[in-house]
Design brief:
This protein is α/β, with parallel strands linked by helices. The protein folds into 2 domains: 298 residues, Rossmann fold (3-Layer(aba) Sandwich); 82 residues, 434 Repressor (Amino-terminal Domain) (Orthogonal Bundle). The chain contains 15 helices and 12 strands. The strands form 3 sheets. A 7-stranded mixed sheet has the order 4-5-6-8-7-9-10, sandwiched between helices. A 3-stranded parallel sheet has the order 1-12-11. The longest helix has 22 residues.
Length: 441
């Protein structure tokens, strides 16, 4: 099957032109970062999975604590637009929308875990210098990382933090959650768990609103929401929660997800198993899917059921939040058939039971609601990691719900040889400009 990149012509905008790409420390399109100092190992505790609905249930006490600011730490100041432009350029991002210097903070706040139990999480808040007191928040949800440090609040002007900086440099408040188990958050990261990505993102907005007055700012009610790759689905989850009124203050203003795996079970996993994605990325995604989903949904009893030797004895530890992208690259094979047993492949090809239920929740981000705000779906032709069928399926699902969401095809962009990563770079400036136009309008 060929990778589909076409959409209806009336809904498709195409951007041409080369994108400036600088050398940055990224390794493979999973956003599995190159060597970093190894942080303290994540807490390796897993438990039997409650039903998906139970994960959303909190006691009144837990609800009241969500979004409470625990601490705030100033990370860095880029005092002039020129300083911001230099940092963005070093990370491979455009600087054509920069108007302000910025100041960045790490917020630690109270939220709930995938089981609805109290926990904490961290995130990045970037504010423009010399700006007016009232700011519109832009929530950016980042792509997949392996190490806890692969998070916006842990990296200065890097691939995971640059979009939040870019939005702040254009005059907004850039709000970027690290997600559960990433950054300074305890425990393991529940990868592609839309419920906990949504709660972590919403509670980060609440913490940012609580902290903003200390800097002389107030966050407006309307939130612009964007995200890349894993974060594209997280962005749709947050948008759905905001539109449903899950926060008493914030309201959804617009949606601009980028290169998401919106149909993870119906499009992404089949493309991965059929060899239509980049081989090494497919290995890493398959491994992460089985390990992360098993922690919440009990897919297998022993790693040897789904992973071949010698990887059955090592692969789970690679996703503990303390291993770098380079270590994951070295610790996994180059082909799926070297990683997966026959049963492991069957589990991904024909999900049943708890995995099938979990994938239905993951894949509902485009199907079970109708955004009442402007929506654009960004993608890149020939994306080697998030097959573009995902975007087409999302657009079709939204259209069935009465939402005409145009697809912005960014073309054959690239970042370190990856069109998937390149889409994040290329989309950032476009989204900054679009959000600005919506605000002026």
């Amino acid at each position: 099957m060929n990778i589909s990149t076409s959409t209806s012509s009336r809904n498709k905008t195409r951007y041409h032109g080369s994108r400036r790409v600088q050398v940055a420390a990224v390794c493979c399109g999973l956003l599995l970062s190159a060597p970093t100092a190894v942080a303290t190992a994540a807490t390796a505790a897993t438990a039997a999975t409650p039903p998906a609905a139970q994960a959303q249930a909190q006691t009144p006490h837990q609800e009241r604590g969500r979004g409470t600011l625990v601490s705030a730490e100033k990370l860095y100041t880029l005092a002039t637009p020129q300083a911001v432009a230099a940092e963005l350029g070093a990370a491979g991002f455009e600087d054509d929308t920069v108007r302000h210097g910025v100041v960045a903070y790490r917020l630690i706040y109270r939220t709930v875990d995938a089981y609805g139990r109290p926990t904490t999480a961290s995130g990045l808040l970037v504010l423009p210098l010399g700006s007016e007191g009232r700011l519109r928040a832009v929530s950016f949800a980042h792509g997949t990382g392996s190490h806890k440090d692969d998070s916006p609040s842990m990296r200065r002007a890097a691939f995971v933090s640059a979009p939040a900086i870019a939005h702040a440099a254009a005059g907004a408040a850039g709000v970027a959650p690290d997600y559960l188990g990433m950054g300074k958050g305890p425990g393991l990261h529940p990868w592609m768990d839309i419920v906990s990505e949504t709660t972590a993102s919403l509670d980060m907005l609440r913490a940012a609103r609580a902290f903003a007055p200390r800097t002389g700012h107030v966050l407006e009610r309307e939130v612009m929401v964007t995200g890349f790759s894993q974060g594209a689905s997280a962005a749709l989850g947050l948008g759905r929660a905001l539109q449903a009124g899950e926060d008493r203050w914030f309201r959804l203003g617009a949606l601009a997800p980028v290169s998401g795996a919106y149909d993870f079970g119906g499009a992404e996993l089949p493309a991965l198993l059929e060899g239509r994605l980049e081989p090494k990325s497919s290995v890493l995604y398959a491994a992460y899917t089985l390990v992360a989903f098993n922690r919440l949904h009990h897919i297998y009893d022993s790693p040897g059921e789904v992973f071949r030797a010698p990887y059955a004895g090592t692969v789970e530890a690679l996703f503990d939040g303390a291993h770098t992208g380079e270590q994951l690259m070295r610790g996994t094979p180059g082909a799926l058939d070297e990683l997966l047993t026959g049963h492991g492949r069957e589990v991904l090809a024909h999900p049943t039971g708890p995995l099938a239920e979990a994938l239905r929740a993951t894949d509902a981000v485009c199907t079970d609601w109708a955004p009442r705000v402007p929506v654009r779906l960004y993608m890149a032709t020939g994306d080697e990691q998030a097959v573009t069928d995902n975007t087409e399926h999302c657009q079709a699902a939204l259209l069935r719900n009465g939402v005409d969401a145009p697809v912005v095809d960014l073309g054959e962009v690239g970042h370190h040889g990856s069109r998937h990563l390149g889409s994040n770079v290329a989309a950032t400036s476009s989204i900054v400009r679009w959000f600005g136009e919506l605000r002026q309008g």
